[in-house]
Amino acid sequence: MASHGIPRSSTTEPKTEQARLKEQEQIQEYTALVDLIDAKIAERQYTREVLDLTSKLLKKNPENYTIWNVRRRLLIHGLFSKQSDSSLPLTESQSFSPGATTTTSSANLSSSATTSWASKETLPNRASPIPGKNGTTHDLIKGDLDFIFPLMIEYPKCYWIWNYRLWLLDQAIDRLEVDVARELWSRELALVGKMLNRDSRNFHGWAYRRGVISQLESSKLHGRSMVESEFGYTTKMVKAHLSNFSAWHYRSKLIPRLLTERAASDLERYQFLNNEFELITNAIYADAYPYAQSVWFYYQFLMSTIVDEVGHAIITPNLTDEDRIEYATKQLVNLRDMLDGAEDCKWIYNALLEYTLALSRMQNRQPLEVDKEECRSWLAELRKLDPLRSGRWDDVEKSLKWLDVDSRFAPESGGPIEL
Amino acid sequence: MSLVTGPGRASISASSLPTELQLSIAAHVKYIQTLDKRKDELEYHLTEHLRINGIYWGLCALHLLGHPEALDRDQVVDFVLSCQHENGGFGAAPGHDAHLLYTVSAVQVLALCDAMETLDERGKGDRSSLPGSTSSESGILGVGRYLAGLQNRRTGTFAGDEWGEEDTRFLYAGMLALSLLNKLHLVDVDLAVDHIISCANFDGGYGASPGAESHAMQVLVCLAALSVLGRLDAVSDKEKLGVWLSERQVDGGGLNGRPEKLEDVCYSWWVAASLSIIGKLHWIDEEKLTRYILECQDPEQGGIADRPGDMVDVFHTHFGIAGLSLLGYPDLVQVDAA
Asked: What's the CA gap between A141 and A169, in Å, rounded?
């Protein structure tokens, strides 16, 4: 959408006459192509020729959503129903090569950087029709999936491409035999894995992955649960890059199902929680990561399963109040240890403050004198380290009446402050 | 209206800026006025799929800048109505298919132009009166029915068009337009609220669908939808959400959309408006954010970019100005966060 991250250098030079003429030529070519497709569709020419024209246009401009819709109609109302011409290849997708990538001036991404990789993505058996009554439809869907792939690589944030691809795959479920459709869907897992290796935070990629998994698990495709392998995938992704919040998020969503499907005992759940804390603590200790917020949000998620009221106890629902208190106490000790060498890390002070107060709530008591003293000093550190959010720290202070800090002492003094 | 970037570009770096940064109102008005006169640029044609959104962004920015008259009202209304289909929905431009997003932009533009009566007279779609109703045929009802028809009656969320993509963006946009049309009774509001609740995450934020990662834009659309529907009580933990939102501010003053991503002017709107809805705008440094947005403008040729040094466009111009308005920047019309 609009222009994200286009550096200013791209049009600072005044256009030469030659460049201006070339641009007029490109405009002509583009609008003529749009008009041609419009005219053919108005005549209901739902043919391969028109499909190829839409391919040509979409390579110039994949954001043209109406053309993606035209393509859907071409398939539904025309090509899918023509069962006899299965030997005809889908020429556009077959002829696609890196060199044929258009030089759309609006493209924010350098096509040369992506196509060499894309060219290696030629998937096996692209042209050989699956024998049987669904030959044509299968070829069309598979050919179209192959055509789209380089566009996805070049325009990974274009909503319309991802949507069209999912629609196409849904057509496979509706129109092909289950095992054939399943094979097409299975390929998507590898594809989206590659997309996420290129950009491990791509929002579309993660959403697509969840969509693909949900179909592969569904009875429509004779699927079964993939929660174990997906959980393993998040482990791999966070270990590759500890700041990958998208992967931590996905992990948090998989855990309840994972434990249910494992029929995990209370002890196994307790061990699972320990393992997750170990993973995140090691991540926090890794180089530079105490300052990365992704790991702290996941830490917050784990802590919420201990300190929050029922409903959040999704990992260890049967821990007694005493067990939860003991667990939180132990984590507070760990947090203090983390401060050693990371005295400038606001996230640790934030966690100490939050969970010290949570602990006193869990124990149904007012904070101890020593707690109050420490909370005051942690809040002073937070103010010092994180002045951008001073309004938030003001509110924290207000919500804790007993924390009234005399402004003369905070935040520079650092030392203990009298009530 | 075009989405062509430039010609302006944001200031290069903070060090070259004058100490007193000012919003260049006249330059921005001029920039928006000339957007539709750039048909000799290829990008003008390649961004046709955003034409009606472009008009909304430009016109809304002009309203906030106090110059609503800078675009010819009748011309705008005629263009918008020329984008409508027989089913009541609007496309991005003549020749483009109907889609919820463009329909909502159309309704917003018509509302800004105070042209609801014109829509009622000239609008298309299913205008027939409801059984038993005594009211006359209505173009407003035609649009309302198109939008209501996109609600998923099983889950409460909305699809973008007949092809079925669903997203909380569409839920919000649909509800906003239905509320402007005064046709919220055509949809299942409770089911929509339940759907938003199911999109909440442990960090307090919201995603595009149940299970999706929190994202500042999705947070705003969910909060704004709840606000339009009068159901902000459905936000379970405003403290946690406020923490997550306030952590979007990076050292330079700008805001990002997710943890450890780059800052961008459009999040000035999505994050700040979200904070404003839950009463926590003061949890970020408003002065630094104001300065960041001003650093992203081209003071001479007008327009605002995503980041200092990048090409300007009308999308970021709109969200930058809306952000400044929310932050109480002087001389701007006050914007409503929802």
From this structure: 8
Q: Where are the alpha helices (DSSP H) in A61-158?
A: 65-77, 91-95, 111-119, 135-154
Question: Would you state the pLDDT for residue A7?
Answer: 63
User: What are the tokens at B52?
Assistant: 């009606």
Cite the beta strand spans of A27-132 per DSSP E. none
**Considering only CA atoms, which of B307, B293, B304 is closest in space to residue B27?**
B304
Interface test with A, best of B44, B163, B263 (most A CBs within 10 A): B163
Dihedral sign from CA coordinates of B11, B13, B18, B22: positive
Contact B49 A65 (CB under 8 A): yes
B99, A65: Cβ pair inside 8 Å? Answer: yes
- From chain B, the residues in CB contact with A393 under 8 A are none
Residue that the structure tokens 């173009």 belong to:
B139
Q: In whole angstroms, what separates CA B303 from the centre of its chain?
A: 17
- The per-residue pLDDT for A131 is 40
Query: Does residue A242 sit within a domain?
Result: no
| Any domain includes A263 | no
Task: Tell me if B310 and A3 make a contact (CB, 8 A cut-off).
Answer: yes
Tell me the per-residue pLDDT of B219-271, one tens digit each, with 9 for 90 and over. Answer: 999 999 999 999 999 998 999 999 999 999 999 999 999 999 999 999 989 99
User: pLDDT-based confidence at A96, cuts 50/70/90?
Assistant: very low
Structural domains of chain A, count = 1
C-alpha to C-alpha distance for B27 and B300, rounded to whole angstroms: 6
pLDDT value of residue A310: 63
**Interfacial B residues in 223-242 facing A (CB < 8 Å):** 242
Average pLDDT, chain B: 93
Question: Looking at the domain B201-338, which fold is it?
Answer: Glycosyltransferase (1.50.10)
Closest chain A C-alpha to B40 CA, distance in angstroms:
7
Q: Are B40 and A61 an interchain contact pair (Cβ–Cβ within 8 Å)?
A: no
Token digits for B26?
């006249």
Tokens of B91: 């496309």
Containing domain of residue A63, as a range?
23-102+112-224
pLDDT tens-digit map of B111-136: 999 999 999 999 998 877 666 655 55
Query: Nearest-CA residue of chain A relative to B7?
Result: A11
Residue A218 has a pLDDT of: 97
Number of CB atoms found within 10 A of residue A269's CB? 19
Contact at 8 Å (CB) between A272 and A243?
no
Residue A348 domain flag: no
> From residue A158, how far is each of A153, A162, A165, B92, B193 by CA, in Å?
10, 7, 12, 16, 28
Please classify residue A363 by burial: count the beta carbons closer than 10 Å to its beta carbon, then call 0-12 exposed, 13-18 middle and 19+ buried.
middle
Whats the size of chain B, residue-wise? 338
Q: Does A404 fall in a domain?
A: no
**B194 at A interface, C-beta within 8 A:** no
For residue A60, which residues of chain B lie inside 8 Å, CB to CB? 46
pLDDT, mean of residues B180-204: 97
Q: To the nearest whole number, what is the mean pLDDT of chain A? A: 83
Q: Side-chain half-sphere of B234: how many Cα atoms within 13 Å?
A: 23
